[in-house]
Amino acid sequence: MTRSQSMQPQSAVGAPVARVDGRLKVTGSARYAADHGPADGIEGVVHAVLVEATIGRARITGVDTRAAEELPGVLAVFHHGNAPRLPYRDNPFPDSINPPGERLRAFQDDRVRFFGQPVAVVVATTPETARHGARLVEVRYAAERVGTDLAAGTPGGEPETYGRGDVEAGLRSAEVRLEMTYRTGRNHHNAMEPHAIIARWEGDRLTVWEKTQWVADPRNELAAAFGIPQESVRCLSTVVGGAFGNGGRTWVHSVIAALAAREVRRPVKLVMTRKQLYSGVGYRPAYEYAVRLGSDRSGRVTAMAHDVRGETSRYESHADDMALGRMLYTTPHVAQTVSLVPLDVNTPTWMRGPGWSTAAYALECSMDELAHELGIDPIELRLRNEPESDPATGSPFSTRRLRDCYAIGAREFGWDRRNPTPGATRDGDRLIGTGFAAGAYATERMNAQAYARLDADGRVVVQSATSDIGPGTATSMSQVAADASACRWTPCASTWATRCCRPPRSRRWPGRWRASARPCRTRATCCAPGRRPRGHRPGLTASRRRPGRVVVRDGWLSVGTDPGRGETYPQLMGRNNRSHLEVIGSYEPPEESGFSMYSYSAIFAEVAVDARLGLVRVRRMLGVFDAGRIINPTLADSQAHGGMIGGIGQALLEHTITDHRDGRIVNADFAGYLLPVSADVPDVRAIYVDGEDREADPIGVKGLGEIVIVGVAPAIANAVFHATGRRVRELPITPESLLG
Asked: Tens digit of pLDDT for each residue in 199-245?
C-alpha cells in the first residue's frame, strides 16, 4: 500500500450494504442468460432442444430424423451423420479448465460414452415445436457393456501420491491404531438457474449470452472449437443464478448451440432441462476414502495413511484436490494415494469446496473417532496436533487463526455444556448430539485487469471481464472502488462481458474463493490520487500539490494538512477541460510468496435423531471462519449460510442413484434428488475472526465462498454419532443407515 492510498478514508469497505443487483433479482427484473431477446437486439431467435442417448455405452448405428423434420416449424436436425466437422483446437487453459483426456465433442463421431450424452439437436421456431421434434427423433444403437459402479471399477493410470516420513513404521509403533473407510455419494449442483445459452453469428464473429462462472472460458472454448480467433468471440453474462462449480468450464451444449446457429443462420437459444443437467454439466464425484491412523495415548497423531478412490469418465480424468490431510495437523508420517476409476459416466467437475470438503469428511470423522477412542475432547485433540508451520511444505502460514476459531466457536456454541457420553442426552423421543469439525481451503490468486473511468460529474465507472456468480462481486467491487477513489458509495448496475476489459492470460479460473481478487484489482485501478490516469497532466491535483499529499473524501480533494483548501473532481476536470479521466490497472501476484495461504473453518452442529424412525434434523449450527478481511458482512453471511445449508444436504440428503445395468440416473429430478428446503434449515450463525492477510492478497482477503462448506458434513456426522453412539461412515446419512 502506498502512502497516498493509506491516507484515504475507508468507509465503504466493511459496511453491510445491500447488493447492488438485489432489487433486480427480487422483483424479477434481472435478466439471466435465457431471458435475453429482442430488447437486447437479438432478433429472430429460434430454439434448440437436445436429444440424449438412452444407453450408457454404445455405437450409434442409425438416426431417423424424418418425422421430426416433417413437423411444421422444425428448421433442422443435426447429429453426427450430418453435422460439420469442427477443428477443435486445444483450449489455451487445459490444465485448469479441461482435465486430461479428450473433451466431449459436438456430434463428431458415433460413440456414446454415457447415458444422457447429446446425440442430436432439433432446431425449431418455438421451444414447444423443438421439444416435440426431439421426441420424434429415433436413434439406433449397438450396445456395449457398461460400467458405472465405483466399487466394482478398476483404477486407471498412475495414482497421485504424496508422502513424508515412514508411515508403515509409524503405524507399527503407534500406541493406538484405527482403520476406517468412508464413502461419499455423488452430488449435483442443482442451481436455481439451469444452464442456457443464446448464440448469434455475424459473419465470422460469434456472440453468446451464456451462464458461466467466468466470461473468458466460453470465449476460449468456442474459439478453439470453431478454429477462430479469440477476438472473434464475445461472451456476455449479466446475472448468474447459481453454479457452485459447474459453470467453471464450457460444456458441449454451448458448442452445439453455436454450431446450430451457424448452420441455420439464425440466433439459437438452448436451455437445458433439469434432467439434462444431471448428465450434461458435471457433478461432485463419489469417493471411497480409507484412513489408517496411529497416535500415542496423549492424542498426538504420529502416522496417517490416506487411500482415496474417485470416479471419473473414461474420456477425461477429473481429480479433486485432496491436500487437506497433508497440512491440517502436525503429523510426522503421512502417505496419500489418490486413484481415479474410469467409468462410463460424464466427466465430474468442481463443486463447492471441491476435494477439501470431501477430504474433511474422512479426516475429521477419523479424528473424532480417535478422540472417542482416547476419551479426549475433540477440540482438545485438534489443539494437541496444531502445527506451527505447514507440515506439507515447511513454509510458514501467512496467517492461521484456527485456534481462535476453536475458542470463539466453543464459547459461542456452549461446547462446555456438552455431555461427552454418546447417546446420553435426550429430548423426549429425540436423541440429541453435538459435533465439531475443522477445515481449510487453499487461497489462490490470479492475475487480472480492470478499467476505471472518472467522469466529469464525479461518477466512477469500473469494468472487468468477470462474472458475479453469487458472492456479490459487483457490490464488493463498487465498495472497494468507492474507497479507492474516495467517492461516496452508491449502488451501481453491472454488465459482465469479455469486451469490458480483456483479462491477462491466467491459468486459473475464478471460483468463489477468488472473488475477492476482483476487488483487489479494482482497488489497484481506482487509487487515482496516487497514480496518473490517461489524459491527466502533472499538477492537476488539488492546489497543484504532489499527489502523495492529497486526501480525497466524498470526491473532495484537499491537502492533508489543510482539509478546507481543495476542490471536487468535477471542478478539477472542468478547470482543465476534461470530460473524464481513465486508467487500466492490473494485478499480478508473485510466482512464489514463500507462505502457505489458507482460509480456515471450525464448524459446530447440534442434531436431533428420532430414536424410533432414525430421522436426523439439524437443530443449530455455528461456523467460525478465518477468511481474512471481510469486505461486506451481509454478503459474507449470505455465502456462509448458503454454504452451511449446502453441507446439510451433503451430509443428510443429497446423492444420485445410478442403475448400473445401463448407466441411467434414476433420481434425476427434484422429486428423487433430495435438497435442503426451508424446513430443513436450522438456526445458522456465522462468525468471522478479525484480521487480514496482506501476504495472501493486497487488500487482506483470503476467500470465503468455498471454506464455508468445508467441515460441515463431518460436524453433522460426528453429532449423529454423539447422539446415537452409532458411527455411520457413508454420506448421506439416511434413516436406513441408523436403523439397519
From this structure: 999 999 999 999 999 888 999 999 999 999 999 999 999 889 999 99
Closest CA to 182 of 22, 18, 310: 310
Query: Do residues 621 and 685 make contact, with C-beta atoms less than 8 angstroms apart?
Result: yes
Domain range 3-30+446-587, CATH architecture:
2-Layer Sandwich (3.30)
Active-site residue identified among 210, 288, 316, 706: 706
706 noted as active-site residue: yes
pLDDT of 407 higher than 60: yes
Asked whether the CA dihedral 116, 121, 122, 126 is positive or negative, the reply is positive
The CA–CA distances, whole Å, from 697 to 43, 353, 482, 672, 691 equal 44, 20, 19, 43, 13
Sign of the C-alpha dihedral, residues 648, 652, 653, 659? positive
Between CA 336 and CA 305 the distance in angstroms is: 6
The residue ranges of every structural domain in the chain are 3-30+446-587, 388-444+596-739
Q: What are the tens digits of pLDDT across the range 522-540?
A: 555 555 433 444 444 334 4
CA 56, CA 665: separation in Å to the nearest integer?
A: 10
728: left (phi over 0), alpha (psi -120 to 50) or beta: beta
For the cut 50, the answer to whether the pLDDT of residue 728 exceeds it is yes
Chain segment 133-188, per-residue pLDDT in tens: 999 999 999 999 999 999 999 999 999 999 999 999 999 999 999 999 999 999 99
Closest CA to 170 of 288, 303, 39: 303
Shared fold status for 3-30+446-587 and 388-444+596-739: yes
Q: Collapsing DSSP states into helix, strand and coil, what is residue 137?
A: coil
Give the angle 56-58-59 at the CA atoms, nearest 5°.
150
Q: Which CATH architecture has domain 388-444+596-739?
A: 2-Layer Sandwich (3.30)
Please tell me the least confidently modeled range out of 188-197, 437-446, 602-611: 437-446
Strands 658-659 and 664-665: antiparallel
Cell of 381: 485433540
Identify whether 529 is preceded by a cis peptide bond (ω within 30 of 0). no
- State the pTM of this model: 0.93
